[in-house]
Design a protein that fits this description.
With 508 residues, the chain is an alpha/beta fold. The chain has helices at 3-10, 15-23, 29-36, 52-63, 76-91, 103-106, 112-120, 136-144, 180-196, 200-206, 209-220, 228-242, 246-255, 261-268, 279-285, 289-320, 340-351, 378-384, 408-421, 426-429, 439-450, 463-470; strands at residues 68-71, 97-99, 125-129, 148-152, 165-167, 328-336, 355-360, 366-371, 391-394, 398-403, 432-434, 456-459, 475-476, 493-498, 501-507. The protein is built from 22 helices and 15 strands. It has a 5-stranded parallel sheet, sandwiched between helices. Strands 6-7-8-10-9 form a 5-stranded mixed sheet. α4 (52-63) packs across α9 and α13 (246-255) packs across α16 (289-320). The chain starts with a helix and ends with a strand. Bound molecules: manganese (II) ion. Manganese (II) ion is lined by residues 77, 130, 154, 179-180, 221.
Length: 508
């Protein structure tokens, strides 16, 4: 039986919905199980990931000696990945070092400086986490220096891959939307199993923090919360309640609030790399309550102040936006480049159009962040203008780039050309377009909603009838959009099946 038949026959899923599930990444019988029974025993084994076997052997080869460098990425997914592998390699009896490039002076790929740094330290293996998938030249350079490279990165796979051992969920053997932190957790699982025969249950009992770190990257990167991502996050929530992890108990002490994965992320993401040290990694790995309390209370205060400043800035920016023609280009060269991703996301959420925010790095080069609604593929755009760029990468709707100052004018021209022509892919915006109410489909979507799958549905046709039937489901409409106009006077309604119910997103 193929996957569609399994979904239709065994799980009673409507064929249309089954096709959408397959498109969303449920393309393998084990993933079907992880979707419908999201419990830890249904996490796919590490070794089903393409190249994992080779990667594990390579790591074990070096883990008996000194000589491993973890090359991370300066965001919560990157720092939680780094913490997972640092901890695991220590358990294996080696003392690795890590380096996380500073975003506003070094970009985010593997770089030659880092390889020289590794070479001087006698490093024989570099493991890139949450970055590196496009570092073709840098991997060549590392090899010339006699350094082996493993890349564990969940970003989009570029046309030309570096000549390294590559682990990427989009190559198969796992849910394609896992974070780099979950990918790192699977490396950890594989290593601990190969070396000590530990299984997942043993690790949950004895090294529960590894799962908790893995959950941070899933939430921070806003990945779809079903299948393996749901398994990790649900298990982490249980473990946080069961054990008092230092960073969580200190958070409780400082704020008086119940610590959750969600509450920790804004604090961790307000910390930036110092290169050879990243305080977020140190805090995650530390059992020293005094150190954690000292640092966390300082950061907590600073992050609150910074958020206030950013909110102010955001308010000013919104007031300056007078006219929108398909997209927004924000010149934020007065702001620190670390903050422009946040601003771009917020402006995108508010105006629901693509936003490009540019700033300067420490060397005066232009750096930018792009955030778009679903349906855009901005990596394709960056590919098409790659000769203007020094560096770029990320996800289709959230990516970053850098370029020389001289290229800015051409870049702006290219944006204008691109957005006047580009039509977002309607199939990526809406999972489903329905011209009438279909009970079977809606019941499927309701059940899948509880398993974490989100469907964005465009309703057309007899909207009076559709709205009256939709009312049998939990509707979330805090701004009461639906009562603005009678459904018979509408052309369409957009509904998202969200965590709390069917959210009314848009009418027109
Ligand atoms: Mn990531």
């Amino acid at each position: 039986m193929n996957i569609e038949q399994v979904l239709v026959n065994e799980y009673k899923i409507n064929p249309t919905v089954a096709d959408i599930l397959i498109k969303k990444g449920i393309n393998d019988i084990d993933l079907v199980k992880s979707l419908f029974q999201p419990t830890i025993e249904n996490l796919l084994p590490p070794r089903s990931i393409v190249n994992m076997e080779t990667a594990l052997k390579e790591i074990l080869k070096y883990s008996s000696k000194e000589g491993i460098l973890i090359w991370g990425h300066d965001d919560v997914d990157g720092t939680s990945s780094t913490a997972i592998l640092m901890k695991t390699l220590r358990l294996l009896g080696t003392e690795p070092i890590y380096y996380i490039p500073k975003k506003n002076s070094e970009g985010h790929k593997l770089n030659k400086f880092g390889i020289d740094f590794a070479y001087e330290k006698g490093i024989k293996l570099i493991i890139c986490l949450d970055t590196g998938i496009s570092s073709v030249d840098e991997v060549e350079y590392a090899k010339e220096k006699g350094i082996s490279v493993i890349i564990a990165d969940h970003h989009e796979i570029p046309k030309i891959l570096p000549d390294a051992i590559i682990l990427n969920p989009k190559m198969g053997g796992t849910f394609q939307h896992i974070s780099s932190s979950v990918l790192s957790f699977k490396i950890a699982l594989g290593l601990l199993n190969l070396k000590f025969k530990y299984d997942i249950n043993y690790i949950i009992e004895n090294e529960p923090s590894l799962i908790v770190y893995a959950s941070l990257g899933v939430i921070a990167d806003r990945l779809p919360l079903f299948s393996e991502n749901k398994i990790i996050v649900d298990t982490a929530k249980e473990l946080i309640n069961k054990y008092g992890f230092t960073i969580f108990s200190v958070y409780h002490l400082i704020t008086g609030q119940q610590p959750t994965i969600y509450s920790l992320i804004p604090i961790l993401s307000s910390i930036f790399s110092e290169g050879e040290r990243h305080l977020a990694v140190e805090l995650l790995l530390s059992n020293d309550e005094i150190f954690v309390e000292e640092q966390l209370s300082k950061i907590y205060k600073q992050s609150k102040e910074k958020l206030l400043l950013l909110e102010n800035e955001l308010q000013k920016i919104k007031e300056q936006i007078k006219r929108i023609r398909g997209y927004i280009l924000l010149d934020l060269r007065h702001m620190n480049s670390n903050s422009i991703g946040y601003i771009a996301s917020k402006v995108r959420d508010y105006y629901k159009v693509p936003v490009i925010a540019i700033s300067k790095d420490e060397l005066g080069k232009v750096v930018g962040e792009i955030r778009t609604p679903t349906g855009y593929n901005m990596l394709e755009f960056l590919d098409s203008i790659s000769e203007l760029l020094i560096n770029y990468g990320g996800h289709k709707t959230a990516c970053g780039f850098s370029m020389e100052n001289d290229s800015l004018y051409d870049f702006i021209e290219e944006c204008e050309k691109f957005f006047t022509k580009y039509k977002p892919n309607i199939e990526e915006i809406y999972d489903l377009i329905l011209n009438s109410f279909d009970d079977e489909i809606l019941q499927n979507i309701e059940n899948l909603r509880k398993l974490g799958v989100r469907f964005r549905i465009l309703f057309k046709g007899n909207l009076k009838d559709i709205v009256s039937k939709l009312k049998y489901y939990t509707i979330v409409d805090p701004n009461q959009i639906l009562s603005v106009r009678a459904p018979e006077h509408l052309n369409y309604i957009v509904v998202l099946s969200a965590e709390d119910g069917f959210r009314i997103e848009e009418i027109g």
